[in-house]
Design goal:
Immunoglobulin-like, elongated, 338 residues, 3 domains, 9 helices, alpha+beta, 40% helix, 5-stranded mixed sheet
């Protein structure tokens, strides 16, 4: 097997330190705490590794000198042997000290993560399905609750308490830039707190193998100013836009008469109150189709509706036979739902 040059390996690893999905490119309080313990472990373990190499080199050099020198008499303790015993004692103390520091650091970070809950936290319910994310924003008044899919909007500087549920199998919620992983287990409610500190777009994903299309279960995360978040939330509360053309009106009729409305919900549309699939009220405002499987555009939307199994084999969305003109009209209608 050919060895990868160190420069090439470093070049390949550098993107993992920054970007939309990078645990070392911290953008939130919780990720910062995790980064602190990671750096502590890196420095301590790195220093110990260097010392081990130095000790190995010294042992090899000492062995060569002994082979080249006069034989050592049995039962005679040389000054070098006494020095070696002292060094071993110091090495043992160094190992114990390093382990104690690591244990203490891990404990402090764990306590800091546990205390991250805020009294005025934004409350969000995330339900994992095979293979998409259902996002619900809680509010004191039922009419102010927002439901969306595969995208998470967060106001910068405000803590969000995320309540995690699973509808089928074990999943894992992971947004590396904001926090570590947390499992979603059927029949159990877990929680995770996110406190973003930097405006930007990030990528989350399922980090627990959950079936055939586990790799295509992404989550688009947008951290924005409180004013931008509130504007987005208000748009989500609005009912779906009414068709503005004959083609869009035909597409709405196709949606309501075909099987679409049995699984999907569009607020303000008759016969579209399904909960099996994602809420499509503001479908055109999203960045991706099918939980990150395709970038959002009319072509991707048409391909997904025409044959979802070709894009995500095993997905629960069935193939609905549509005439070409009906498919075109349906895409035009959905693309108007901003």
């Amino acid at each position: 097997m050919r060895r990868i040059p160190a420069a090439v390996l470093l070049f390949l690893l550098l993107p993992a330190c920054s970007g939309q999905q990078a645990a070392l490119d911290v953008a939130g309080d919780q990720a910062s705490r995790i980064g602190d313990i990671w750096r502590l472990m890196l420095w301590i373990c790195g220093a110990m590794y260097v010392l081990v190499l130095v000790g190995l080199g010294a042992a090899l050099w000492r062995a060569r000198r002994r082979l080249a020198g006069p034989p050592v008499s049995d039962g005679v303790e040389s000054p070098n042997e006494r020095l070696m015993q002292t060094a071993l004692g110091g090495w043992t103390a160094l190992i114990v000290t390093g382990l104690v520091v690591l244990a203490l650091g891990s404990f402090l970070v764990d306590r800091a993560l546990a205390r991250a809950e805020a009294a005025n936290a934004l409350r969000i319910k995330v339900t994992a399905h095979q293979w998409w994310w259902e996002i619900e924003y809680d509010a004191p008044v039922a009419n102010d609750r927002v439901s969306t899919a595969n995208e998470l909007h967060l106001p910068v500087g405000r803590a969000a308490r995320v309540e995690l549920h699973s509808d089928d199998v074990i999943h894992s919620f992971w947004i590396p830039n904001l926090n570590g992983k947390q499992d979603l287990i059927p029949g159990r409610t877990n929680t995770l707190t996110l406190t973003p500190r930097r405006v930007g777009s990030y990528r989350g994903e399922c980090a627990e193998f959950c079936g055939l299309q586990h790799a295509k279960m992404a989550l688009s995360v947008t951290v924005e100013t409180p004013a931008a978040f509130e504007a987005w939330r208000r748009r989500q509360l609005a009912p779906a836009r009414e068709p503005s053309s004959a083609e869009q009106a035909r597409g709405k009729a196709v949606f309501q008469t075909a099987a679409c409305g049995a699984c999907h919900q569009i607020q303000g549309a008759d016969n579209a109150m399904g909960r099996t699939g994602p809420n499509l009220t503001h479908m055109a405002g999203r960045r991706y189709v099918a939980a990150g499987a395709l970038p959002y555009n009319q072509g991707s939307l048409a391909a997904w509706i025409a044959d979802p199994q070709a894009i995500k084999p095993g997905v629960r969305m069935p193939k609905v036979p549509l005439a070409p003109q009906d498919l075109t009209a349906l895409v035009a209608y959905l693309d108007s739902l901003t």
